[in-house]
Amino acid sequence: MIHLLHPPLERGLDTCRATYLTEIGRRLGASGQGDATAIPAFELEAHVRKLATDQDGGVMVLDGQYIELLGVPEWLRELPALLPSRLLLHGPGRRSPDAPPPDDVARAHRAWAAAVDAVIATAPRFVPDLAGEGTYYVVRPGIGDVFRPAPRPSRGGRHVISVGPLVPSRGHLELVRALAEVATTSQGTDTLRLTLIGDHEAAPTYTTAVRAAAGPLQLEILGVCPAEEVAKQLQRADLYASAALDGSYGLAVTEAAAVGLPVIAFRIGELDAWIRDGVNGHLVAPGDTGALRQTLRDILAEPERLEQLRAAALSRDALPTWEQAATRFTTACRHHGTPPSGLAHRIAMHSECDLPTEFGTFAVRVYTVDDEEHAVLVRMGDLAGDAVFTRVHSECFTGEVLASLKCDCDAQLRHALRMISERGRGAVVYLRQEGRGIGLGNKIRAYAEQAKGADTVEANRLVGFPNDLRDFSAAAHILRVNGVERVTLHTNNPFKVRALRQGGVAVEQVLPSVMPSNPHNESYLRVKYATLGHLGLRDALAPTAAAARTGSEGSPTAAPAAAPADLLIFDLDGVLQFGDVVPPAATELIARLREAGYALRFLTNDGFNSRRSRLAQLRTGGLEVEERELYTSSYLAARFLADRGPILSLCGPPGADELAALPQSQDAPRFVVVGDWFPHYDHAQLQAAFAALRRGAELVALHRKPHWRRHEEVLIDVGFWVAGLEYATQRRATLVGKPAEFAYRTVLEDAGCKPERAIMISDEHDPDLTGAAALGLRTVLLGDPPEPATNGNDAFAGRSFDTHAALGDYLAAL
């Protein structure tokens, strides 16, 4: 039996959480597999002890809401001894005014996670902080009988709805302002209505500000509604919109999708599982309120476009159901437990040789694990010292021998070998565990089940196996005996990260292994991301990824383009400029591309420099760039804020020079602008900014990168100030630099180029390439920045030149 214990479902802030627990509990009872019981927090200990003494062999699932209600109770330490079987369900818990400080909450999460066998999460993003070193499962919310699609006659109305607690972090004020602008500028006769469903009594001061911002917008604020009433309200609306950037509101989007309502929101969390961008809604870059406003204006101004979205939204075939959610929940309960790791293997080297390959010559060592030829180390260069680029890879006969299109295994392995060759140093540990450990014969049986409609996890279950039987602990041992102490791990799988760390290998960085998808493996990748928690796959599942095609071997592209391009947009640091040096290879590349007829633009998140000061640096380094071709985040901020009212600037020179022409105000700014301000720290100025934000000024940030690298030194960046002000004011900043849509769209519009005809080139997936891909640009990823030579002459010879040359060859072939 499965015993799901949760606090009473009060009619309070979290209607989404209540829906989740109610639907899972209903299906547990209907199937006879268990029950869901509401237990007040103060009674939980007694109930747990009673169930433990009953010893019915069941599994106890404790709702994550208890963590914030109880903190770390004394009896938690006794939990492992009390219960032979136990799990922790983490649902989206609300933060009440009485909740402990965030640090205490985080410590409580870790304490509870350590006391249980496994964690069930409603989304992969909850996993890293909760699961620690343990096992976790992902159970997505589904669509139940309460929310049913309803025919929606075309009536020309414009009724927008948003669901969620009416608190500043849910973005209602920004949404109201955006829609008020639409209502003010609308040329049509239709009224524009907004309905907010939430607890408007939780923050009355904020509610007053929301009402004041409505202007001509018809605003209706409802209290918390039962699920059935939420469904009715959703069915009356034309569009669901949200400006929320924190908390879990996935279920509210689920409810909107269930009734065939188009959704406009920021691309955060797991929303792309529900919203197909451009099909049944639109997702804009996180924090890009300018893009949010523009998207709302575009949709509401074009009745035909809104009708197209509605028609697509009514087709729910690809969306999860509550039946699937309940099945995955019960499956997790039946198969909970830690995957094999840390076992006392007998590992010995069997044989070795040097092997020439198309990627270069590798040293190959075969190892026996428990007296069987089970593992292979493929290495290049000296593995001692700094973090080594490493991939732990499991055998895939179908992909690596038969070139199967059902998985991305062969592409991942070849990409890793290519990356090692480009670096001249690295390792692949190849483990003989086909089909996530079930063997080739059973894998083929599972493929047969997939042909009948099962996904990759369900197919494993149908042939009698759990999600994953692989053991990565031998990889840590093999790496250590070869002198590897620290790695940069090339993986999407958090279990590999944990296995290496448990085996004594420090994982200093995780590089996602993102390969282009195809029609045969896209659903497989989605299951790996949604159910198995492969967090690095978000980029591969972007709408543009499905249309990507594999490029020529040896090219440095992540998602190569097959069609010609008109515009190339380059990041600067780590791509064309390294510290104060522009390598000859970079100048040769730019000259070659100009001769080929490409339009070039250079987009950097540099907030320290102005456009002119950065231009002078580039020219001193030998890179000829025109002023109109260069976009710094400080210049973009000036463009964004032009004619929008007075600002209070937290930017230092020379970047602040871009903002000098804008009206300034210390006492009544409309915008507080955060840039590179570190040498100019002044408490009084920071306090003035804080006071302005509390009075209603909007927070604008050049970007929110936490740090950046200069040679070997890692320096704190603008994100430090942004996060501090966001935390202090509970306001979310609007970004103008990468990954904000505003940055890319400004460059494209100035160049007169459509997104599909442009390519973004950078050394960083996040934020540069993720933001570009979200707008529909194609992307190219270059390798790590090279090391300057000690002689100061041919500073960037070797692989850096090869990398730029390979890029030039690739672009020349388009």
What does this entry show, briefly?
The protein is globular.
What distinguishing features does this structure have?
single chain; 814 residues; alpha/beta; seven-stranded mixed sheet; six-stranded parallel sheet; 29 helices; 30 strands; globular
- What order do the strands of the largest sheet run in, or round the barrel if closed? 13-14-15-17-16-18-19
Q: What would the principal axes of the Cα set say about the shape?
A: globular
Instruction: Determine the strand fraction and express it as a percent band.
Output: 15-25%
Kindly state the number of beta strands. Answer: 30
Give the number of helices: 29
The biggest beta sheet is recorded as: 7 strands, mixed
Q: From the structure provided, what is the oligomeric state, counting identical versus distinct chains?
A: single chain
Low-confidence stretches: 92-100, 337-344, 542-562, 784-802
What gyration radius follows from the Cα positions, in whole Å? 27 Å
Query: From the helix content, strand content and strand pairing, which structural class follows?
Result: alpha/beta
Indicate the topology.
Elements: E1 2-6, H1 15-31, E2 34-38, H2 44-54, E3 59-63, H3 65-70, H4 79-82, E4 86-90, H5 102-115, E5 118-121, H6 127-131, E6 135-138, E7 158-163, H7 172-185, E8 192-197, H8 204-212, E9 218-222, H9 227-236, E10 239-241, H10 250-258, E11 263-266, E12 281-284, H11 289-301, H12 303-313, H13 322-334, E13 347-357, E14 360-369, E15 372-380, E16 388-394, H14 397-400, H15 409-423, E17 426-431, H16 434-437, H17 440-451, H18 456-462, H19 473-481, E18 486-490, H20 494-502, E19 506-511, H21 522-530, E20 567-570, H22 584-595, E21 599-603, H23 611-620, E22 630-631, H24 633-641, E23 647-650, E24 671-674, H25 683-694, E25 698-701, E26 707-710, E27 713-716, H26 719-729, E28 734-735, H27 741-751, E29 758-762, H28 765-775, E30 778-781, H29 799-812
Parallel strand pairs: 1-2, 1-3, 3-4, 4-5, 5-6, 7-8, 7-10, 8-9, 10-11, 11-12, 16-17, 16-18, 18-19, 20-21, 20-29, 21-22, 23-24, 24-25, 25-28, 29-30
Antiparallel strand pairs: 13-14, 14-15, 15-17, 26-27
